[in-house]
Write a structure and sequence with these properties.
Oligomer: single chain
Keywords: Signal
Strand content: under 5%
Organism: Variovorax dokdonensis
Helix content: 55-70%
Radius of gyration: 37 Å
Protein name: DUF4148 domain-containing protein
Length: 145
């Protein structure tokens, strides 16, 4: 009796595990993976070459494959322009004004006016030329070393 119950239990367990395995694959692979990727092209060799040449003229390498700094975006300014602007800001005395200083004080207004005059006048162009001249001199010194 115990032997027949044992074999009945084993048969039921095997039947259930088989049913579970069979029931696990109810969806075709294309429905949960997607359509197979097509590895062959329908284009001719000439069409592929023409598309490659057209894309090579306009495409740029991804940033991780480039050497050197990225191209400046729209509205971006050069480093030398930022440095010249900062130098004029400091020369006008605005660097001495505290972050929470009174911006309506006569001293601040005078310094702000001096900065704006230099920023919009020939001083900015002269400072930019001085920085660029220094950068080109430094670059030449590096090359000659």
């Amino acid at each position: 009796m115990i032997r027949s119950q044992y074999f009945t239990g084993v048969a039921i367990a095997l039947g259930l595990s088989t049913a579970v395995v069979v029931a696990a694959q109810t969806v075709p692979a294309e429905e949960w993976v997607g359509q197979p990727i097509q590895f062959t092209s329908t284009l001719s060799r000439a069409e592929v070459q023409a598309a490659y040449i057209a894309s090579a003229q306009t495409a740029q390498a991804p940033q991780e494959l480039r050497v050197g700094p990225a191209d400046p975006g729209v509205g971006m300014v050069e480093r030398a322009m930022v440095e010249a602007d900062r130098n004029l800001y400091l020369r006008a005395g605005l660097g001495d004004v505290g972050e929470f200083d009174d911006s309506v004080s006569p001293t601040y207004k005078e310094r702000q006016a001096a900065y704006e005059r230099m920023r919009n006048g020939p001083e900015f162009a002269m400072e930019l030329a001085r920085i660029n001249r220094g950068a080109s001199t430094a670059a030449l010194a590096q090359v000659s070393e």
